[in-house]
Amino acid sequence: MGAVRHTKQKQMVYDALRALDHPTATEVYERVHGEHPTISRGTVFRVLNGFAEGGQARRVTLFGSDTRYDHTLAPHAHGRCRVCGGVSDVFLPDFSALSAEAKSAGFCIEGCEVEFYGVCAACAKTTGNMRQGANER
Ligand SMILES: [Zn+2]
Ligand SMILES: [Zn+2]
Q: What is the mean pLDDT of residues 65-72?
């Protein structure tokens, strides 16, 4: 019975992780807790850690931000919006070329942690009204 409950909790956390965009553990907890008030912060954090360690999610460490979680496992970089602070996925078109280049130098790339900064699509639309861009999130 415990296992079933455990599986359900994992599913709830994973659903929240997918629904949110690169959330912090606290953001995941707030969403899951909003729908299932009985789940504890400790459980959510433990499940997220399990995902990161088990390879179902990756931890994303961006400059000046709490650790975030990402359900997209393919190697990709992140774009940080300087207006709203949102995180967008940036897939490097020549990642395999980059990987081959590194390999020839004797280094095996397993992932990357690259952070670009700029303005996200939503904020670009509201250029000139930065306050609104911030409120939309
Ligand atoms: Zn933005
Ligand atoms: Zn990502």
A: 93
